What does this fold into?
Amino acid sequence: MKLADQHRSSNRTVLVVNSGSSSVKFSLVQPDSGIEMAAGIVERIGEQQSRARLEFGCREVERDTPVADHDAALRLIFDMFDEAGGNLETVGLVAVGHRLVHGGRELYEPTLIDDAVVAKARELAPLAPLHNPPAVLGVEVARKMLPDLPHVAVFDTAFFHDLPAASASYAIDRAVAEKWRIRRYGFHGTSHQYVSEQAAEFLDMPLDKLNQIVLHLGNGASASAIAGGRPVDTSMGLTPMEGLVMGTRSGDLDPGIIFYLARTADMAVEDIETMLNRRSGVLGMGGDNDFRELHRIIAAGSEPEAAHARLAYDVYIHRLRKYIGAYLAVLGDTHVITFTAGVGENDAKVRRDALTGLAPLGVEIDEHLNESPARGARVISAENSPTTVLVIPTDEELAIARACVAVLEVA
Ligand code: ADP
It folds into this structure.
């Protein structure tokens, strides 16, 4: 079958690549059935010992070996896939989908990648210095290795491109904002869009009639307010640092802290950025960015670690509740609140603490449903709660794969 025809066949697959600074995540997805055929990760790229894992059907391959760069990482992925008995030639691969975090003002629709798109994405590096350069590197390596396939960029910022000006704009000097393209771009857009659409489908309600709050609580965390399928506010801004407290990022803070540290603590801007991105949030305050571990430290009660972890948890919940309150006000009448991503899908305590006491605002959780170990999309609100509360697993890879084939179909 020619490649051009292959993208219409129903067992077609898309290789989804998500390149971070020191890791490459990848998965092989059938966009039509939603089946994930293979998934894996190469971590600690460039360090002395890297780790790579691949699951393909019931087979698992692991490698602990130095991986010098992204080029080596992608080669290793293909090797491991061969070792697991897979064959990229025969899985009906029709495209490679790349997650790009920042698309700036101009790149937002899922886009067929050519040299000009790569150049543009490279130019956007100053807007997302931690995210865009490794993603662009991943695109370049993958294009070299799979030159006959279309490569498609899917931007984290896309869903929020048309945020209303009142929520997209910062109250700063207009000329400066315009010249330097400073606005609230929003991130995790693929997840917010996917989950809000799934919520409508799950409730069997038209998307355009629903006012929704989506809480994407993973290692990174963000909230969005969505009216009739269109986002009207989101917690992340120019960069993915704004908003909720996250695994390793501070979220909202007084910008004065940065000037104070630069002037008084004599910290370089890069060091402040690293501290706010990598050594803040629940890790920086509480000693671990994994909520399972955070709960364990608190339960163990050994001081002062337990007190630090407790405060980190309390700050996390306090910020989350502030955003929920803000978005209830932004939307007016909220029909659905949905929790998603690693913490949102798995941590019943976080969900309960985020919503306890909100019955006067129309939000009431059912303790029993909330504690249920069920997986998959589910309701966790009380029967008489005016706002329905859901847990819906996100699937950014599937959403990226579907966006890819949609691009191919119009191309
Ligand atoms: P990302 O994609 O941003 O790396 P995920 O959405 O996979 O993040 O979320 C990872 C986080 O989810 C972990 O750091 C951990 O805090 C949390 N998590 C995963 N499983 C559980 C669980 N069973 N209970 C509580 N938290 C969990």
